Amino acid sequence: MKKSEIGVRLERVIKTMKLKQYQFAEKFGISSASLTRYKSGDRLPDPEFLIALSKEKINTNWLLTGDDSMHIRPDFDGWMKEQLQKNLGKVNSKTGLIETPAIDYTRTITLPILGEISAGPRDHIYDLRNLGENIEIPRSLILGTPDKYMAFRVNGHSMEPNIMHEDLVIIKQEAIWENIDQRVCAVRCDDGATLKKVELDPEHNRIVLIPFNSDYKVQIIDEDQGVDAFLIGVLSLQLRLF
Question: Is the dihedral of CA 10, 131, 159, 99 positive or negative?
């Protein structure tokens, strides 16, 4: 195991719990100095700390090795089914309204969480693949071939209240702009990617990226000014599990 990678995964745990460093240290009964040493790789986490993490459903094997997923999920038909029934939201991409789908639990698929995508100004996707996080979802919620789908964690608030900061979004690959007008999509430019509602403006040769949150500005991609846009895909599912 690489101690430096443990520190990266530990930072992910702190961020997921939405705690400040000192709050996290207090919650798990360690000093701020010990937490700093864990994160820097100067010291391996103590057994008592790992036990405390496991009581909060954190997978300590994942923390130490990167194998499996961050959270302990012992029984999909039990614990995960309960979580999905409570927290799974399917987004109508045109209206932004969240619906509750009928779920068939007889088959599931696992998607790796590839990175964090900005819901705000365009930014480079923060790669999470080295953390080994996955999301297991019912196969019935995925139409067509599973390898056409990608999972990202949302970073930002521009799509609230419908799509929240740290929600998981499942993006279906799509390459044809004409198919996605007025839908929520992941779009990438040279200066980064973002999750926004897309409005096509062919008359002015522009792509308009619209946030749900009125506190954020509309972004305009003007191809006549040499700004190129790449369509990553269209929003298929929104997941809020933790």
Answer: negative
